Amino acid sequence: MALRQIRYDGDDILRKKCKEVKAVTERTRTLIDDMFETMYDANGVGLAAPQVGILKRIVVIDVDYETPLVLINPVIVEKDGEQVGDEGCLSLPGKVATVARPEHVICKCLNEDMEEITIEGEGLLARAICHELDHLDGVLYKDIAEGPLRDVEYDEEDE
Ligand code: NI
Hints:
Bound molecules: nickel (II) ion
Strand order of the largest sheet: 1-2-3-6-7
Order of helices and strands: HEEEEEEEHHE
């Protein structure tokens, strides 16, 4: 496993549409392992392949650091409710903004073995799924945020 370079806002690759994954190769598995390592290293809860410069429809998410999820070719098939809250992104470090998302989503995708799976998310997981899927189509949360980006206020007790 290896850390990959995270691409930051302003990098054109974050604005491109990603291609569907046709097969999971050893290279794909290495990419997925590296994405998890890069995400955990940056204290993130989700990462999409374009954020490490790969234009493939692959997302990793772990909102509680106990439930690593791999989403390949993900599609949201159902959403309901609404949550309004702060959202950040590893490609826009140190910033947050208020974003409205569905409270509940159902997502169909493939896992690392190219098996069809369904992931149901509420709250933070629903938010993370929506955020990461947007990345696959070149959308950043700042595009849909309510109000301006704000600087993150770090709690010193967390340091
Ligand atoms: Ni992001």
